[in-house]
Amino acid sequence: MNFEQREEVFGRALQMYRLGLLRDAARELGRLIEDGSTDPRHISYYGLLIAVGEGKVQKGLALCEQAVEEVRYDSEMYLNLAKLHFRTGRPSRAKEVLLQALKIDPKNPALIRQIARVNPRANPILPFLTRKNPLNKYLGLARARLFLTLA
Questions:
Q1: Which residues contact 45 (CB under 8 A, 6 or more apart)?
Q2: CA–CA separation, 45 and 76 (whole Å)
Q3: Cα-trace Rg, the chain
Q4: Which one of 39, 81, 110, 116 is CB 3.0 to 4.6 Å from 64, fit for a cystine?
Q5: Max Cα distance, the chain (Å)
Q6: DSSP strand E in 10-147: where?
Q7: What's the rounded mean pLDDT across residues 124-134?
Q8: Side-chain half-sphere of 92: how many Cα atoms within 13 Å?
Q9: Which pLDDT belongs to residue 63?
Q10: What is the pTM of this model?
Q11: Residue 148: which of 109, 110, 114, 115 has the closest Cα?
Q12: Integer Cα distance of 59 and 117 in angstroms
């Protein structure tokens, strides 16, 4: 396959993934890998999909970690690895991966959404006040920022 064909197959696989057709998307990405693609995006999504869609968790983790190693600056690779950890029952490891990714891309909305999903809201700092009380709100924001800078 040439570059355009690979990108077409990759786009089709992402569309299937978004529609929840995990096995079909994995099959499409498998074609790319079998064809010799070494694109980290292809490897990362393939790893995520074979783990979640086909139950091949160890192989999927290895592929996602390989993609992260190849392009340490691409937060999308970290996001896929974190999703895989989360969906396979490892939320604390998912959180660690997301915190690494936030160091690279701190304003990435997909990372922020995923960390909120992985790390649910903490209890209010002042339990005798409602969560919406401005004191709780701003103290909670300060705690969250402090946590992110320490991590």
A1: 10, 13, 14, 17, 25, 29, 80
A2: 10
A3: 18
A4: 81
A5: 63
A6: none
A7: 89
A8: 0
A9: 97
A10: 0.78
A11: 115
A12: 25
